[in-house]
Amino acid sequence: MAQVTISEAEWQVMNLLWEREPLAAQDVIDAVAEPNGWSPSTVKTMLHRLVKKGVLTFDKSGKSYVYRSRVARTDCVQNESQSFLQRVFEGEHANLVAYFLRDTQFNADEIAELRRILDEQEAQ
Hints:
This protein is mainly α.
C-alpha cells in the first residue's frame, strides 16, 4: 500500500467499515455523524476523500452508495505506525519502545508477552 495519511476523523469511519462492511453511506452517517457532531455532508465528504485516497471503494446500489475497504486495517496501522515513528522518534525503534516501557505499568501477563516478543526478535 502506498503511504496514505488518514485523519483522526477518517479513522473513525474506517474502523466502522472494517468492523461492519459493506455499509451504505446512510448507515455510515447514522453511526458516526451524531456522536461526533458532524453533519451528513461532512461524513459524505470523508467517504469521498477516503475513496480518492484509495482506501475505500463503493458500488452504487439503486439510489445509495455501498462502501467497503480496499485495504486491510493492518496495512493502515503499519503506515500510521511508521509515520509516527519517523515524526516523533526520528525512526528509532528502540527509543519508541523504551519510551512506552518507561511510561506504562504492565501486569505480569503483559510483561511475559513482551519478553516472548523480544526473545523472538533476538532469535532471528
